[in-house]
């Protein structure tokens, strides 16, 4: 029970973006708007959850020499299905982040969890880990998308709100660029590390 509880907390203490810094290319590319960030986060969560379950289920069948190839094949199949469904039923979102959906295949987070966790644990634990890490990814990329859209465009397109700060506010358009995304992400990481540092100092006392 204790191990299961710690698995649920993986997404917080081993956050894939802020702590492990994995999958940053789709994170920066798809987080220009909150809508794009949310969908990328959901897609990543679904693929991570399902791939963890499949890898754990097939761990005794997949040979060691071909396991990485097998993992990539599993992940690529799910990503392809998601991409096709998005293009067919959500064309607006696909036009915004379609190019980044394919990058989920090579997202080190998904392949890394398959190799380091799913193949070594039961299906139940692998599923929990997938949900936890996926949720951690979803929350952080969504906050990043909100900040970049809010201050970079003065809008929140998901709720069809424009001029959040009024017409006199000048949007910081640089935040919508890759460099701006990395800058905001760096601030997030700095804040997390600062909180950890203060927490460790408090414990030391």
How would you describe what is shown here?
The chain contains 9 helices and 2 strands. The protein has about 200 residues and is mainly α. It has one domain (about 1-205). Strands 1-2 form a two-stranded antiparallel ribbon. The chain is globular and about 60 Å long. The model has no long low-confidence stretch (mean pLDDT about 90).
Itemize the secondary structure elements and their pairings.
Layout: H1 2-8, H2 10-13, H3 24-30, H4 34-57, H5 67-89, H6 91-101, H7 108-116, H8 123-153, E1 155-156, E2 161-162, H9 178-204
Antiparallel strand pairs: 1-2
Helix pairs in contact: 3-6, 4-5, 4-6, 4-7, 4-8, 5-6, 5-7
Number of strands: 2
Uncertain runs: none
What is the helix fraction of residues, given as a range?
Answer: 55-70%
Beta percentage is under 5%
Number of domains: 1
End-to-end C-alpha gap: 31 Å
Radius of gyration: 18 Å
- Mean pLDDT, rounded to whole units? 90
Globally, the shape reads globular
**Largest sheet properties:** 2 strands, antiparallel
User: Which structural class is indicated by helix and strand composition?
Assistant: mainly alpha
Please provide the ordered H/E string of secondary-structure elements.
HHHHHHHHEEH
The strand order across the widest sheet is 1-2
Q: Please, how many helices? A: 9
């Amino acid at each position: 029970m204790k191990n299961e509880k710690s698995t649920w907390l993986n997404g917080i203490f081993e956050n894939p973006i802020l702590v492990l810094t994995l999958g940053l290319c789709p994170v920066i590319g798809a987080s220009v708007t909150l809508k794009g960030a949310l969908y990328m986060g959901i897609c990543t969560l679904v693929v991570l959850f399902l791939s963890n379950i499949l890898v754990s289920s097939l761990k005794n069948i997949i040979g060691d020499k071909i396991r990485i190839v097998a993992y990539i094949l599993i992940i690529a199949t799910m990503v392809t299905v998601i991409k096709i469904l998005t293009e067919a039923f959500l064309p607006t979102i696909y036009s915004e982040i379609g190019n980044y959906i394919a990058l989920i295949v090579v997202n080190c987070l998904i392949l890394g969890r398959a190799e380091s966790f799913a193949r070594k644990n039961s299906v139940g634990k692998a599923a929990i880990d997938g949900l936890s890490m996926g949720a951690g990814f979803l929350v952080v990329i969504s906050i990043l998308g909100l900040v970049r859209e809010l201050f970079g465009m003065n809008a929140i397109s998901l709720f069809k709100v424009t001029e959040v700060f009024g017409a006199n506010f000048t949007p910081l358009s640089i935040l919508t660029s890759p460099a701006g995304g990395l800058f905001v992400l760096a601030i997030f990481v700095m804040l997390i590390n600062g909180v950890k540092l203060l927490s460790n100092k408090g414990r030391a006392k």
